[in-house]
Request: fold
Amino acid sequence: MLLGGQSLKRRIWLGIALVGLVTLLSGCTEINQPITDKSTGFWNQYIVYPLSWIITYFADLTGGGAATANYGLAIIIVTVLIRFAILPLMIKQTKSSKAMQALQPEMKKLREKYSSKDQQTQQKLQQETMALFQTHGVNPLAGCFPLLVQMPILIGFYHAIMRTEAIKEHAFLWFDLGEKDPFYILPIVAGITTFIQQKIMMAGTENQNPQMAMMVWLMPIMIVVFAITFPAALSLYWVVGNIFMIIQSLLIKGPDLKASANAKTPQKAGAKK
Reply:
């Protein structure tokens, strides 16, 4: 296995481990317990309940009062607000990923230079690679820190949606927020928007990181399965969050996508000739 592939896999597994750790520490065992102002524990008092309160606040505000609260619209508003709040972290994560991609040609040269599989050569490869990172100011694990910070917020919002009892009693558009989408429209849209978002994020890197190409298909399938299983309120959250991230990704990666498209155009034209 090449160093680049090993480094990528380590980052993937580290990310999964961090998500799992945060999920465990964030009290997922309480997912079936309603959240109120009397809920105890740091996780409930300082993360889940404030998010639940914000959802209820906007539901009352947009609906004109508690009796006519619009929880669907409130979930949309709070989702957008949260995405804006963590936007700097997402930008930092994207920049870290772009920096790693820019070093791929240099890393390829190092792998070719130290192609021998003996321990001494591999240690030299590791040293040269770390020196390359230091020279360009790149931290291969920098993309994991924003993920670690984001996850408690996103998981907390998930908890707030699932554990706010009032949400289960309201409808939005064609579905009841506390029930599954009867027409499976939201799960399908959630899957499609996840695919588009993953495709944009992976644009130009499929050949460099073939291990990640499968994520373009795996993530949408997982989201559809989850969305079919969970209440429609959570599917609504996923759809809105995905649309926001698609717009965000287009704005951040727009120049790269355009450059990639322009680079491919002469090749296709040459092939036709």
About this structure: The CA atoms of residues 34 and 65 lie 22 Å apart. The first strand starts at residue 171 and ends at 172. Strands lie at 171-172, 175-176. Residues 38-253 form one domain.
